[in-house]
Amino acid sequence: MHEMALAQGILDVALSTASQHDTLKIGRIKLLVGEMTNVEPESLRFCFKALSAGSIAENAAVEIEVTPLIGRCRQCASEFSVAGFYFVCSECQSSSVEILSGRELTIEYLEVE
């Protein structure tokens, strides 16, 4: 379960950021999680809740926006959703595809008090 390690990293960044701003409580964390990361949102929330117990992030709401896996063909420049990790252009059938989104794991923002 790589969600535990990811949750620990997210918590570390959130606590570090909060301490730089004399924050008493983290109320919400908004994450962008790419489809290609294979992160299970509920598992990530569960792990974050377990790890944040006793900290200023203990009751923080974890909002997760899953970003779609989007590719662009290097042959014809067509942009398309990549379904089932099948990296083939839907227009020209080329397998030379650049990934535009779907690999992200980003803290978009923290709401603090």
Label this structure with key terms.
alpha+beta; three-stranded mixed sheet; 113 residues; elongated; 6 strands; 27% helix; three-stranded antiparallel sheet; single chain; hypothetical protein PF0899 fold
Could you please describe the fold and organization of this structure?
The protein is an alpha+beta fold and 113 residues long. The protein has one domain: 2-Layer Sandwich (hypothetical protein PF0899 fold), CATH 3.30.2320. The chain has two helices and six strands, in the order αβαβββββ. The strands form two sheets. The chain has a three-stranded mixed β-sheet with strand order 2-1-6. Strands 4-3-5 form a three-stranded antiparallel β-sheet, with no helix packed on it. β3 (70-73) and β4 form a beta hairpin. The model has no long low-confidence stretch (mean pLDDT 96).
